[in-house]
Design a protein that fits this description.
Layout (H helix, E strand, L loop, with lengths): L20 H31 L34 H11 L14 E2 L9 E2 L1 H6 L11 H12 L4 E3 L7 E3 L2 E3 L4 E4 L4 H15 L13 H13 L20 E2 H21 L3 H20 L13 E2 L13 E2 H17 L7 H17 E2 L8 E2 L2 E2 L12 E2 H18 L2 H18 E2 L4 E2 L2 E3 L2 E2 L2 E2 H18 L2 E7 L7 E3 L4 E18 L4 E10 L4 E7 L6 E8 L5 E6 L7 E11 L6 E10 L2 E7 L4 E3 L3 E10 L5 E8 L6 E7 L4 E9 L7 E11 L2 E13 L2 E8 L2 E3 L3 E10 L6 E9 L6 E7 L4 E9 L8 E10 L2 E13 L2 E7 L3 E3 L4 E9 L5 E7 L2 E3 L5 E2 L2 E9 L11 E9 L4 E12 L2 H33 L1
Parallel strand pairs: 20-27, 29-35, 37-43, 45-52
Antiparallel strand pairs: 1-18, 2-5, 3-4, 5-6, 7-8, 9-12, 10-11, 13-16, 14-15, 16-17, 19-21, 21-22, 21-25, 23-24, 23-26, 26-27, 28-30, 30-33, 31-32, 31-34, 34-35, 36-38, 38-41, 39-40, 39-42, 42-43, 44-46, 46-50, 47-48, 47-49, 47-51, 51-52
Helix pairs in contact: 1-2, 4-5, 5-6, 5-7, 7-8, 7-9, 9-10, 9-11, 11-12, 11-13
Length: about 950
């Protein structure tokens, strides 16, 4: 027994406070109106985004699959069975079934007649929870799911009594007329649906979402603690009670309890959450499954689950052991999930029970479409599956749950028999149950016929449809060429494309490996052997459709053999779209690429220059390998603008490397710049090979090795050299070379004549003005032929001063009678030495240097500020450096203080005072001595 306060399963229980109901009501009305206007478009868009058939096929984009890919456009491929009616169904219930409860979230009635008029004013919490894991699941994200859950919990739907005795949870129904609880019993399934909603819709985010301090983990554990308590869990005989006011053991409640506990165990294990919750959930599932299979609830003799028993699993009232479709459909689902959680052993009793139960229901409850009956399951059978006590009603909710069981059975086995049965049920739902006049599903269609619209039953069907649609789209198309290349080359008129395709259902199932004690994944594959496969061939140039091949799929794999004829032009990156579909599985599509080649392969082009100059002739050699299985005689041409074109007939022997030589010559008046050089191999109207190269046509002359001084001084000279080349083999050329610049002393214009094939090196000295004040100058070189400028080159020369002062130093103070050193470091940027004059206070003085040489020079001047011991006045000095022309290069002004030395202090200040005092004391002492002797 667990105490709610002391239990290990601690729950955070938070209630929303202070809601402004009027504002929220207006907001809800506004949202409802928007939903009415846009729900159809939103649902369809989200369905497309969720399960677009093209999302799983090699990254193919939807926009690539458009006309002219198919004559019928996308509608031929984009089919959405199962979900076609969702927007209409939602519009029907939203328009007719909305209750008048004053809540922050819209709620809906369960029962209405065939036109949608409400026949029962009760609102069931379980329906309004189930809504978001079925009909609205696609458009309700994780956060919205939890927000809706909290709104429903913070309403009359949630009963809150004595927390010490687990007296809380979702109740059965609320009366819309007075906004009060109508049935306060708390049913196990109603509260299990709440847990399943949070797990199914939120999944891995249960530990990360937080709304006003509430988290999905808190809510799951709060509900789990309730079902784990004595309110629902029978700790004596094991198993779950149906509701809080009974001790009967209903099979449906216990099956749903097992499923929910397995979900909690799986999720908590994957997310590494509370291990005690996980282990307790697993234990409850194990204990319950053991009691179901070992006691009277499971009919070991006749196969199948009985409806209910007493608390101790003994026989109940008459009819307790009848076999109901809904109960046993849920039994199939539960056995499958338990089989996955117990290791997925194909020899497991759980799997064998599942197959036996399904086969029994097929034999005894299936009503084939014969003689006015329908392809559907009947409602119930007596304890021995006999017809005497049978209820032959064809019920919507029970058949929807059976469809979900068939879908799940196919999902984990890949046995198409189960999917076929689900599809037949789908067709019956759409043809017989669906009321097109109001866009909702009838409650039953036979014995009795009931056209009423049950909200809960429609939601159960929607959940089955969502699961079926996800399975429907779990298809793939694997297409492979019979060659190793991903993009193969096919020789026209020689090769046959061989493409093998497998159209299959594929799904990955998670199961618990009981040996390794971790969840593992198993891939389930079913190869689809009926349907159609279509191949669409598109050109590489503009993507135009040029051929379509369609074949029926009669076996797997299926093979396409396609002749590559000369009608398929040579080209790279042809597109081959392959799509497969069947009447009962989603379209799968894949994209392949291939090339069509002639079989002639360019090996190399020898002698092809990067720049072809006007005039000279070069020999180039094409090396071609013929991989065709026949010899060919072809016309081979070399063509380009402004070259001399050439054509020759060439015999290319099979599997032999052939050298083809051309004379490549650019015309003398050829346009300069890039040109396309084209080599064509043709036979009749067929172009076998085309080789295109880009070459640069250059001048008939050129210059190279341009070298110049990048720095000089005012009035200096720039030395420059370059090589000029004449490419013409038979004639000379007259060139004009000029150098101009704003700061040149004079421009240079040089006329030279180059002999044929001559290479000459030219040298120039460019003089810079000594009046230049800029630190750089631009010089332009032009090379002209006649009046045409072929080269126009600009370059920058940096101007350095003749002299640069690097550093200057002079002390701020000096002891009396000592010299002070003025030190100036100067850089001479010239290549010659230059004399200078240093002046101190306008008077020339000698320095340590006779002249300023190239490079750095240190000039030192010594000055004596004062030799007088009593002179403390600051001294000023002006140092002036002049060049040999008398121009001032630098001038500095300094003030220096004189410091008293210790020697001067003693000699000139202390001793003159001490000596007279000493003499005075000496004589005074002698006088005292005489006076003492007289006494």
């Amino acid at each position: 027994m667990y105490s709610r306060r002391s239990s290990l399963f601690k729950i955070k229980k938070n209630k929303k406070m202070g809601k402004n109901w009027n504002i929220l009501s207006l907001f809800i009305i506004f949202i409802v109106l928007l939903n009415i206007l846009y729900i159809s478009n939103n649902i369809n868009n989200q369905i497309l985004n969720k399960s677009n058939p093209f999302d799983q096929n090699n990254g193919i984009l939807e926009e690539e699959i458009s006309s002219p890919l198919l004559s019928g456009g996308l509608d031929d491929l984009l089919e959405f069975p199962f979900l076609d009616n969702f927007s209409d169904i939602w519009y029907f219930f939203q328009s007719n079934y909305e209750s008048n409860l004053n809540l922050p979230i819209s709620t809906y009635f369960r029962n209405g007649d065939e036109t949608g008029s409400i026949t029962d004013d009760k609102v069931y919490p379980v329906d309004n929870l189930y809504l978001y894991k079925s009909l609205l699941k696609i458009e309700t994200n994780a956060t919205a799911t939890y927000s809706n859950y909290l709104d429903l919990r913070d309403s009359p739907f949630w009963y809150e009594g004595d927390s010490q005795s687990y007296d809380y949870g979702f109740i059965r129904s609320v009366d819309d007329s007075d906004n009060e609880i109508f049935d306060d019993r708390r049913y196990l399934i109603d509260n299990l649906v709440a847990i399943n909603l949070l797990i199914d819709n939120i999944g891995d985010q249960i530990a990360t979402i937080d709304i006003d301090g509430n988290t999905p983990v808190d809510s799951i554990e709060e509900l789990f603690e309730l079902i784990n308590s004595s309110i629902f869990w029978d700790n004596t005989y094991k198993g779950f009670y149906d509701h809080n006011s009974t001790t009967d053991k209903y099979t449906e409640s216990n099956l749903y309890g097992i499923l929910t506990c397995l979900k909690i165990k799986n999720l908590y294990d994957n997310l590494n959450l509370n291990s005690e919750i996980r282990d307790r959930a697993e234990l409850l599932a194990n204990l319950t499954m053991t009691e179901l299979l070992d006691n009277d609830i499971w009919d070991q003799t006749n196969i199948g689950f009985k409806e209910y028993t007493e608390r101790d699993w003994t026989a109940g009232a008459p009819g307790y052991n009848f076999k109901y479709l809904k109960t046993n459909a849920l039994g199939i689902i539960t056995l499958i999930e338990y089989w996955l959680e117990s290791g997925m052993n194909p020899d497991s009793d759980f799997f064998n029970y599942t197959k036996a139960l399904y086969n029994k229901m097929e034999t005894e409850m299936w009503s084939p479409n014969i003689g006015g009956s329908y392809n559907a399951y009947e409602f119930s059978r007596d304890p021995f599956w006999g017809g005497a006590g049978a209820n032959r009603m064809i019920d919507l909710e029970a058949n929807a749950l059976m469809m979900l069981a068939c879908v799940r059975f196919f999902e984990v086995t890949g046995n198409f028999t189960y999917y076929e049965r689900a599809w037949e049920l789908y067709e019956t739902f759409e043809s017989e149950f669906y009321d097109q006049s109001v866009n909702a599903y009838r409650s039953s269609i036979s014995d009795p016929y009931n056209a009423d619209k049950d909200f809960n039953a429609n939601l159960v069907l929607c959940e089955a449809y969502i699961e079926a649609y996800e399975l429907y789209n779990s298809t793939l198309l694997d297409a492979e060429f019979n060659v190793s290349q991903n993009v193969p080359d096919y020789i026209f008129n020689q090769d046959i494309m061989n493409l093998t395709s497998i159209y299959a259902y594929q799904n990955q199932i998670q199961y618990y490996n009981t040996t390794t004690e971790v969840y593992e994944t198993k891939t389930i594959i079913y190869e689809i052997e009926d349907g159609d496969i279509t191949y669409l061939f598109k050109t590489p140039e503009n993507g135009a459709l040029f051929d379509t091949v369609s074949d029926p799929i009669t076996s797997s794999p299926t093979t396409l053999l396609y002749n590559i004829t000369d009608l398929v032009s040579i080209g790279n990156n042809y597109s081959l779209w392959v799509y497969a579909n069947s009447s009962k599985m989603g379209t799968a599509i894949t994209l392949k690429h291939f090339n069509v080649v002639s079989g002639l392969i360019e090996v190399d082009i020898l002698g092809l220059p990067s720049i072809l100059y006007q005039g000279p002739t070069l020999n180039i050699t094409l090396q071609i390998n013929n991989t065709r299985n026949e010899n060919v005689l072809l016309n081979v041409s070399m063509e380009s603008e402004d070259i001399y074109n050439e054509t020759q007939i060439v015999f290319l022997e099979t599997l032999v490397l052939t050298n083809i030589t051309f004379n490549l010559t650019a015309k003398l008046d050829a346009k300069l710049g890039p040109h396309e050089l084209r080599f064509s191999f043709s036979g009749g109207t067929i172009l076998y090979l085309e080789i295109i190269k880009l070459i640069e046509i250059g001048h008939s002359f050129d210059y190279r090795d341009f070298i110049y001084d990048s720095r000089t001084i005012k009035g200096g000279t720039i030395q420059l050299s370059l090589k000029v080349i004449n490419f013409l083999p038979n004639s000379s050329q007259l060139l004009n070379i000029s150098f101009t610049g704003e700061h040149l002393v004079y421009d240079i214009l040089d006329e030279i004549t180059l002999a044929k094939n001559e290479i000459r090196t030219l040298y120039y000295d460019l003089e810079i003005s000594d009046q230049i004040v800029a630190d750089s100058t631009e010089i332009i070189m032009k090379i002209k032929k006649g009046e045409t400028v072929f080269y126009n080159k600009s370059f920058i020369v940096y101007i350095d001063p003749k002299f640069e002062i690097i550093s200057v130093s002079f002390p701020s103070s000096v002891p009396q009678g000592e010299y002070a050193d003025f030190i100036l470091v100067i850089r001479n940027n010239q290549e010659i030495s230059e004399s200078f004059t240093m002046l101190v206070n306008g008077v020339p003085v000698e320095t340590n240097l006779a002249g300023i040489g190239p490079g750095d020079n240190k000039i030192i001047v010594q000055v004596l500020p004062s030799i007088f011991p009593y002179d403390f006045q600051s001294k000023t000095f002006t140092f002036t450096l002049k060049d040999n022309q008398g121009e001032i290069l630098a001038e500095y002004y300094y003030e220096i203080a004189l410091e008293l030395t210790a020697f001067n202090l003693m000699v000139f200040y202390v001793l003159p005072i001490l000596i007279p005092i000493a003499i005075l004391l000496y004589y005074k002492n002698k006088e005292l001595q005489r006076k003492l002797l007289r006494r």
